[in-house]
Amino acid sequence: MNLKMRNKPVVDILFLLALFCVFLISALFIVLFGAKIYRKTVSNMDVNFKSRTALSYVTEKIRQFDHSGGAAVIHYGDTPVLVLNERIDNTDYSTFLYEKDGYLTELTARSDYDFNLSGGTKVVPIQGFNIERVSDSLYYFTLTDENGESISYYVAEYSHTNNEEGMTHE
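Structure (tokenized):
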């Protein structure tokens, strides 16, 4: 009888130990799967943020220069350039938006500046930037982010620009 009493606690301890191991392994798998899902979510959010930042930046620039003669599309070689014009204290300035070396780049200078692609400030990383002026007040943009995902969208000027001065060069 004494022998039966000794085996029962050993079996109980082994059962509890096995149950605890199953719990630990399950918890470990849940943490590992959760970490993988979290990493993927953060990566997707980062890609979304960068592409939407570029999209919002260009859209807001068009809105900022939304006046007659405020925007034009030119091509500097094979590179499409969005030119945004404004007059400050009787001096004309132009802001150029274009893609250079994997970045959306912005350069602001006096309008009589001899524009070239070597200047400018890097804004956000992108692989491609294409602009097409669909009508006097509608632009079609295609942005390719650093992962190769393309986003195409239209931006309309609120004020109707009459382009009789030949501001669009294609």
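The chain has one domain: 1-170. The first strand starts at residue 71 and ends at 76.
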